[in-house]
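Suppose you are handed only these lines of text.
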Amino acid sequence: MSNILYDGIFTPNANSEKTFIITPKGEISYLEFTAMTNKLANILVKKGLNPGDRVAVQSDKSVLYLALYAATIKAGCVFLPLNTAYTSSELDYFINDVEPRLVVVGDNAMNSLALLAKEIGSEIMSLNGDETGTLAAVAKNESPVFEAVARTGEDLAAILYTSGTTGKSKGAKLCHRNLLSNAKVISEAWQFTADDILLHMLPVYHTHGLFVAINLLAMVGGSIIFLPKFNVEDALSWMPKSTSMMGIPTFYTRLLNSSDFTQELTDHMRLFISGSAPMLTETHLQFEERTGKNILERYGMTETSMSISNPYNGTRIPGTVGKPLSGIDIRITDAASGQLVQPGDIGVIEQRGDNVFLGYWRKQDETAESFRDDGFFITGDLGREDENGYITIVGRNKDLIISGGLNIYPKEIESVIDEIDDVTESAVIGVPHRDFGEAVVAIIVSNGNTLSDEDIQNHLVTKLAKFKQPKKILYANDLPRNTMGKVQKAELRKHHAKIFHEE
Ligand code: AMP
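From them, the structure of the protein bound to adenosine monophosphate can be written out as follows.
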């Protein structure tokens, strides 16, 4: 029996001398990566980890981090990457929830994660970059040979905690079938091959930077330019050596803000992909104007990996996320009744396919509530499908505003506000209001020029029904975002919760 994920992703190129990872410090071949992986897998087994045991990791990006991911899979264990920004109370919850057998911290110091891990009796090791830390030290004496532990498609490969914008975040259980099938689907959809060199500036504790990027490139035998994080200078200097780039919208807006980001620099690039947060139509258009290329926008989430994408060949439509990827069933339903909405109407996006996760870790009720009886997963994202099958994401269901009993979709209002000259971006939220239940509030970021409420209202008055027009307009220097570029609407709602009650 084989190890479904490891054999599908890493085995095909395991003995290749081709470069897998390029870092500012040097290059690592597939063969070297395999040896590193095997040494780490040997450590896991010697530490007594059994198939199904969880390995939690909180550390900066490094090649060793990636090898630990591959080793965990190869040893039949479950990989649990933790966001490096988590506070100790968040870590406390994750560690107690997931009970990892091994916890790998970023440095040798007894940081809060290590202390928590100690309390519940986990093994603790450290991973300080590629050269130091106990994991690197112990690996030096390990054998570079390791036989993969057999795992079926249904066995757990990873647990990824969702961003948790409402309530506690939940651990999404991803199995070998989920991750392998998605790498195959996107390699075909986006035509990745061994000739690709991906510019990688995403974090690796998130599905985008870890599974979408790493699994895909490893599977096709491509190379990855692996940089610690995004900054414009590095992106510009490494782009000439790349063929493709995956990013969140912020990467693209920041690149466009630099006059050094030119058509010449991108001429050789095969593909620019964006996702994890909505990209403004304006950004798509500016990018095309500057480079002559269209960004391919796609949609996915921790629980489902990639599920909807604009086409590689064919028209990429700004403001949409394209059509369902091959083998993935998508339907749009009424949130309350679960019935299909009329074509063109807004509803909740549901999906079913090999990509859809197994459920939430130790959360039976939340899992049951998230699935329909016929196996469709209720994403909580609102969307609309046009007559050509292109889907537009309208926002999260929980961000829907109900004012005076009427449904208001923030995205619709944001799109109209964003048309105004001098508006860079906006966020529209619902805030408690005595008369209306909730009232529409717009938070606007300008390009530096002063905007007045009157400018905004004059523009909206002919374009939006009265009940959709903001009852209050606020101005901000920027919008609160998480590391994946998502606007934190829950934070905005909390911050402005009392503005009508204070009047
Ligand atoms: P995460 O689980 O952190 O990957 O977040 C997934 C969520 O990001 C989805 O449920 C959507 O709300 C949002 N998202 C991802 N891609 C897009 C996109 N292209 N446009 C709009 N929202 C997106």
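What can we learn from it? Residues 85 and 326 are 35 Å apart (CA to CA). The longest strand covers residues 423-433.
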